[in-house]
Specification:
- The complex is a heterodimer of chains A (261) and B (160).
- By secondary structure, chain A is mainly alpha-helical.
- Chain A folds into 2 domains: 3-113, no CATH class; 121-258, no CATH class.
- Chain A is 70% helix and 8% strand.
- Chain A is built from 10 helices and 3 strands.
- Chain A has helices spanning 3-27, 32-45, 83-97, 104-113, 121-138, 143-166, 170-190, 196-207, 213-224, 228-258, and strands at residues 51-54, 58-65, 68-75.
- Chain A has a 3-stranded antiparallel beta sheet with strand order 1-2-3.
- Chain B is an all-alpha fold.
- Chain B has one domain.
- Chain B has helices at 3-25, 33-52, 58-80, 85-91, 98-113, 117-151, 153-159.
- Chain B is elongated, with a radius of gyration of 18 Å.
- The chains are: A mainly alpha (261), B mainly alpha (160).
- At the A-B interface, helix 2, helix 3, helix 5, helix 8 and helix 9 of A face helix 1, helix 4, helix 5 and helix 6 of B.
Chain lengths: 261, 160
């Protein structure tokens, strides 16, 4: 292979590495500015000048090669959220900027090691259930409202994880789990002969753990930093999830009205 | 201790639990959870002191609490080499206006199914009042978090 071609291959390899980083960050819920600035940092560490862009379709990275422009593109299938991955990628970029890696291969190996670290479901479900109970206290609920909210939130989270694992759309998972969780907390509260106001509190507290905080906040952060397109996309994604959860709660109201529960 | 102080302390403790629980759902590393718990409790305490203490109405109090948390992590997050949203989002989640949103939803349901004229008018008022309040609080949370970094943009750019 000629030296020119070898140089082009090396350049393409570096671009692929940068676009892989962008893809991991974008699919882990990093705000657009963080994705772009991290890619710029890594490019600086790899001593190449790039132009990058991010939208709903994918991550684009280009640079000038000897025979013209080289492009690296990575398609984004979905925008997930994993803050451990975002933190690891961010630290990798800072280490690369400080020259702590000996070679491009070392950066590549480090990037490959970054996985989607999550807590075990058996730990998250009870934690979220207790958070539902804490929401009940925050809104002025009594101990029985707390207990009903914990029960409802437990069922809600278990169902949400089950439906997500089965591959259903996120909006459907929110709607179904809000409905079942809300109904469960309502029925649990009936055992304690609670008042109407307490029933309302239990349903709210149960469904509050579904608030899509990260897409909503990321959407606003993007919009305020000038990335209107991705910002609006994330905000609408959050809005759809909120509406889905609201539909689930409306379902609980309709069912209780219909059956005079 | 007065009832108000006890109430604020209990609410802060609850918020201090909700923050890390929410953060765990999105894979925030274990080492940052105590910091999130403290920040979530602080956010709730600031809002309730401002609101229940009678200094401000709820939307402004929420905005100030969110802005304070945002400013706090603009200082802390670069030192820990962690992007700010890892902390800020989970820290303010306990400020979400659940009761207002639900009342608006109930009023909407009443508007769709109700037939009594007086009840319909009262539902319209509740829908707009609670709906607007819930939206305003949500906006205040988002703006509080999003606006603060704009003041420190150059600082963050140089330290990224």
């Amino acid at each position: 292979m000629s030296p020119f071609l070898q140089e082009e291959t090396r350049l393409k390899h570096k671009l692929d590495l940068i676009s892989n980083l962008g893809l991991i960050l974008a699919t882990s819920g990093a705000e657009t500015r963080l994705v772009l600035s991290s890619m710029d940092l890594l490019a600086k560490a790899l001593e190449i000048k790039i132009q990058s862009s991010l939208n709903r379709t994918g991550v684009f990275v280009t640079c000038e090669g000897r025979f013209g422009q080289i492009l690296s593109f990575r398609k984004i299938k979905n925008f997930g959220i994993n803050m451990a991955t975002v933190t690891s990628c961010h630290r990798l970029c800072l280490k690369a900027e400080n020259g702590e890696f000996e070679s491009v291969k070392a950066i590549e190996d480090e990037l490959k090691k970054i996985g989607q670290k999550t807590y075990p479901k058996a730990l998250i479900v009870p934690m979220e259930a207790l958070a539902g109970g804490a929401f009940a206290f925050l809104n002025g609920g009594s101990f029985k409202v707390y207990m009903a909210s914990v029960f409802g939130a437990l069922i809600l989270m278990a169902l949400r994880f089950f439906l997500t694992k089965k591959g259903y759309f996120e909006a459907f998972c929110f709607m179904a789990s809000a409905f079942v969780g809300g109904l469960a907390s309502l029925l649990a509260l009936r055992l304690f002969h609670a008042s109407y106001q307490e029933e309302i509190l239990a349903i709210i507290a149960t469904s509050l753990i579904l608030v899509p905080g990260f897409p909503l906040l990321n959407g606003f952060l993007d919009i305020f930093k000038g990335y209107i397109e991705t910002g609006l996309m994330r905000s609408f994604q959050a809005l759809i999830l909120i509406i889905s959860a609201a539909f689930g709660i409306l379902g609980v109201i309709c069912v209780t009205n219909f059956y005079n529960l | 201790m007065s009832d108000l102080v006890i109430r604020i302390l209990i609410e802060s403790a609850c918020a201090g639990f909700i923050g890390p629980a929410f953060a765990m759902l999105f894979g925030v590393p274990l080492t940052f959870l105590p910091l999130i718990a403290a920040a979530a409790a602080l956010a709730r305490a600031i809002r309730q002191i401002l609101y229940l203490g009678g200094f401000l109405e709820i939307v402004s109090a929420t905005f100030i609490a969110a802005a304070f948390i945002s400013a706090l992590f603009i200082y802390i997050a670069p030192k820990l080499q962690v992007p700010r949203p890892v902390f800020t989002v989970a820290s303010i989640i306990s400020l979400v206006p659940g009761m207002d949103a639900y009342n608006a939803l109930l009023a909407l349901n009443e508007l769709i199914n109700g037939s009594d004229q007086d009840l319909l008018i009262s539902s319209i008022i509740t829908l707009f009042h609670c709906g607007m309040r819930a939206t305003a609080i949500l906006l205040a949370m988002c703006l509080g978090i999003a606006i603060m970094p704009l003041f420190f943009y150059r600082y963050r750019f140089h330290h990224l």
